[in-house]
Write a structure and sequence with these properties.
Structural class: alpha/beta
CATH superfamily: NAD(P)-binding Rossmann-like Domain
InterPro entries: NAD(P)-bd_dom_sf (IPR036291), Sc_DH/Rdtase_CS (IPR020904), SDR_fam (IPR002347)
Number of helices: 9
CATH architecture: 3-Layer(aba) Sandwich
Radius of gyration: 18 Å
CATH topology: Rossmann fold
Organism: Aestuariispira insulae
Family: Belongs to the short-chain dehydrogenases/reductases (SDR) family.
Largest sheet: 7 strands, parallel
Shape: globular
Protein name: NAD(P)-dependent dehydrogenase (Short-subunit alcohol dehydrogenase family)
GO molecular function, one term: oxidoreductase activity
Number of domains: 1
Order of helices and strands: EHEHEHEEEHEHHEHHHE
Strand order of the largest sheet: 3-2-1-4-7-8-9
Helix content: 40-55%
Oligomer: single chain
Strand content: 15-25%
Amino acid sequence: MDIKNAVAVVTGGASGLGEGTARALAQAGAKVAILDMGLEKAQEVASDIDGIAVQCNVADAASAEAAMAEVSEKLGACAVAVNCAGVAPAGRIVGRDGPMELDAFNKVIQVNLVGTFNIMRLAASQMQTRDANEDGERGIIISTASVAAYEGQIGQAAYAASKGGVVSLTLPAAREFAKTGIRVNAIAPGLFGTPMLLGMPQEVQDSLAATLPFPSRFGKPSEYAKLVLHMIDNPIMNGEVVRLDSALRMQPR
């Protein structure tokens, strides 16, 4: 797909992987809409890349519907949707204080999995209205999974379950949308230099980085964005979940 002048929606685009992706898409010539709960930071990034910022709770149907409608009105029908919005709280199923609160588990599922599905359904609906290119392609959706979907650690039950859902969603969605020329892929990152990780004490960062075979450093949001751009550009990459993890295989703890 030709990204130049295409409308690209990035959730969680105000920081981390989403910000790196939004900047890369804009540099490649896309018209970028940043959807994020934090409107002020989203507006700062949008101003830098000549895009737009829209406040959006991806886990809420009405909020996402209004946000995607605003994107369509201001920029046109969505051609690229990249789901980067997510949360990653830690918590044991049964901890020192007893069983995990069910609401805590549900919140992670709502944001990471339901939020991904929410934007997917709305973006695909807009993509189906676009003119197809010579391959019959109308759009692409890229979601963010995690290596935790495969090797979730102790304390990551909710997060791993949500990201496992993103992995399992990818192929059936790609199969369903094939008839309308919409591709669906996902990326499963390892340890990346996002605000969450970079906010940890330096000794913790060093310890985590040492678990990465090569290179033994956190990935950069720009490196995640490079894979996003490749997925957009490669027309036969469809229904795939690609690990981006420096050969990391996480241990139980």
